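Lecture notes, unit on protein representations.

Consider one protein chain, 429 amino acids long.
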Amino acid sequence: MGAIARDRLGLNPTAAPPALAAFVVCAVAVAVSASGVVATSAGVDQRQYHWVTIQYFREIFPRIDIVNVDTATGPLYHLIVAAVSGPLHLGEFGTQFLSSFFAAGLAALAVWYVGIVTEPVLRVLAVAPLLLSPYFWESALWMLTDAAALLFAFAAFVLLLRRESMDGVGCVSAGLLLAAAVATRQTYVWSLVPTIAVIWYQHRESDSGTRLLRVLAVAAPALVVLAGLVALWHGFLPPRFHEMNAANRSWLSPTYCAAVAAVFFVPISLATYGRGRPRLSTTLGAGAAVALPALVWTSSATTGTDNARRGGLIWESVEHTPLLDGRSLLLTLLAFAGGCSICHVLLLLDNTTAILIGTGLIGLAATMTAGGQLYQKYFELPVAAMALIAICALAANGAIERRWPLVGLAALQALLTAALVAGPVITAP
C-alpha cells in the first residue's frame, strides 16, 4: 500500500464499526450455542477433536501435556480456551460461545483495517470476501482454530503495512504474533515467508547487520515454537495424527491454492482491468506455471473413506465435471485463471503489498504440500485476508475501475454461507 495509505492507517479511526462487527459475531455465536446446534463439518470437528482436547487440558490442569492430544493442530487455542472456560465451569455450549471471541477479534481487526478506504461501499466490498466466508462463520460458531490463527497472522501483517520500515520493537511484536499463529496452527509457518520478505525489502537500504537482526527478530519466535513442537511430537503433527494427516505429500497444492485464489482474485482483476497495461507474457506465464501440476499429478476429487480432497466449492465442482485420465480440466482452468489474475493484481500494487501477497500465496501453497489433505478451509481464509489487503491497497490508490465484480464476489460468499452454514443451523433438529 502506498505511503499515504499507510500514514492514514496509523490514525485512530472510530471504534464503532469494529465494535459493531465483533458484536454481530458474538450475537450470532451466542444464539447458535444457546440453541445447542452442532452442525456442519465444523461441528463434527468440535465434538471429535477440539472440545475433547479442551476438556483434557482442563482435567489435567495445572499439568500441561501437548503430546497426547486429540487434535492435529497446535495447542495454543485449546490452552487459552481451557484456561478461561475451566475456572468458569463452562460446559460445551458455553465454551463454544467463548471460542467465538477469536473470530470476533478478527472481524473487528478486519473492519478497522478497511477504514483506510474512504468510500463506504468499497470498505464493505473489501471486507466482505473474508467476513462472508462460510469458513469464517464455521470458526465463529463452533470450536475451530482457523479464526484464531488468522487473527494472529493478520495482526502481524497489519503491523508490517503500517509504516515504510519496521523498527526493532515492531519486528519483535510481529514475531510474537506469528509465534502465536504457529502455536495455534503449525501450518501457519507459511506466514513467515511474506513477513521475512517484506522486512527484507523494507530494510533494503540498511546495513546488512541491521537487516539480518530485523529478520531474526520477526522469524525467531515462530521458528522456536515450531522447533519445540516438532521435537515434542517427533514430527509436524501430534503422534496420533502422523498417519492420518502426514502420510502423503500434496504436490497439487500450488494448483489448488491458485484455484481457490481465482474465486477472489479474478473479480479483483476484473474490477481493476483497464488500469495500466497488463504484461501479457508475465501473466500468462504465471497462470501456466500454477496450472501445470494439475496436468502432472492426478487432480480428481477423492471418494469413499479418503476425504483428503472433498468439500468446498472447488472440489465439489471438480467432482461433477469431466476428467481426462484423472486430471481435472476445470481445476486446471481455474488455476490458470487464478495465476493470471494474481499476477495482474500484483503488478498494480505498490511493492510492499505486492511482496506480501505474492510471497504469502507462495508460502501457503508450499507449506500445504507437506500434508495429504487439501481442504478448502485451509486455504480460503488466508487467501481471503490477502484479497482484503489487495482491495484496500487498490482502492486507496484509485485503481478500482468498477464495482460489480466485487459485488458478485460478496454475493457468492453470502450465498455459500447461507447454504453451507445458515441452512444446516436452521434445519437442525
